[in-house]
Amino acid sequence: MQTIDNSLLQVSVDENGAQMNHLVKLADNFDYLQDREGQEHVTVAFPALGHDDNWALKLPWTVVDKGDARVSLTLIDTPKSYKKFPYHFEVMVTYAIEGNQLNVSFYLKNNSNKDMPFSLGFLMPLSQEWQAQTELNKLVLTGPENHSGELTSTDFKLQFADQKADCVCETTLNKESDRTFKLSFTIA
């Protein structure tokens, strides 16, 4: 488990799946991912959203950079993954805290000599106490004890359904190219 923080926020990321397990507002020790039922976690999905084809959950992630308020983890294809998803790829996810904002960036590189179609997801479950309002490139979340936040991105389609804030991007990466996808969660 990797923990990053500043004076306002603390975030814990599990190397298994690069999943965010805690998002804590330090002023009142409120964890946005915990409710009376238990602890939730944010799931990274790549190259597909379904569990069976989500290599982000199956392959090992490696911590490649760590600072007080940021951590980067990398995922690289394997011979086993290539048999089911015939592309050579690298994925790096960086969690970085700046003030009251958590910035999440995904750097994807297609090392294949053919175009690579894929889905990239950042799936954040929330308890029944949370509500969301969808705006252009933004999800405004209001929750228990007057806690709120905003998920914003121009790279992901943002939606709230079944008590999950889903940030999903479905696209194709050209052969031997790379691209960065970004989203932010601002705590109010």
CATH topology: the name is Beta-galactosidase, Chain A, domain 5
**Biggest sheet, in brief?**
8 strands, antiparallel
Shape: globular
Helix and strand string, N-terminal first?
Answer: EEEEEEEHEEHEEEEEEEEE
- Tally of DSSP helical segments: 2
Q: Flag low-confidence runs.
A: none
* Structure summary, number of beta strands: 18
Strand content: over 45%
**Adjacency order of strands in the biggest sheet:** 8-9-10-11-18-15-14-13
**CA(first)-CA(last) distance:** 26 Å
InterPro entries: Aldose_1/G6P_1-epimerase, Gal_mutarotase_sf_dom, GH-type_carb-bd
GO biological process, one term: carbohydrate metabolic process
Pfam families: Aldose_epim (PF01263)
GO molecular function: carbohydrate binding; isomerase activity
